[in-house]
Design brief:
about 120 residues; mainly alpha; Rossmann fold; 3-stranded parallel sheet; 6 helices; glycosyltransferase activity; Glycosyl transferase family 1 domain-containing protein
Length: about 120
């Protein structure tokens, strides 16, 4: 499987986006995360996500990702195999992910902020 994994080191944002858009999946088994923006980025690009079922990653991903225990390598590996072999499941995560990513759009953030401002002024 190592021939299918690209280790890049640090990359500029535009190169990250191009690689991510062409990825078969984002494997993001973080042990601790403040927010997990790569999860949202992948979902917006139509890339299914495998991520940690702990901390912020679970909250960000919701039901739109395959959640795994990042300390359990077998669980992570099983998730990778499932995404590789189950096209219906993969497509389900892609569709849910695109929808979930909209919850974190700038347009939604601006709209929610504007509502709070208006409510505070009334």
């Amino acid at each position: 499987m190592s021939e299918h994994i690209i280790r890049t080191g640090h990359l500029p944002a535009d190169e990250v986006c191009a690689l991510l858009a062409n990825a078969r999946a984002l494997i993001f088994p973080s042990l601790a995360e403040g927010f997990g923006m790569p999860i949202v980025d992948a979902m917006a690009l139509g890339v299914p996500v495998i991520t940690s079922k702990f901390h912020a990653a679970e909250e960000v991903a919701g039901n739109a990702a395959l959640l795994v225990d990042p300390k359990n390598i077998n669980e992570v590996a099983e998730g990778i195999v499932r995404l590789a072999e189950d096209d219906a499941f993969r497509m389900s995560l892609i569709n849910k992910g695109k929808s979930r990513s909209e919850d974190f759009s700038w347009a939604k953030a601006a709209s929610e902020t504007w509502k709070i401002i208006i409510e505070a002024l009334i």
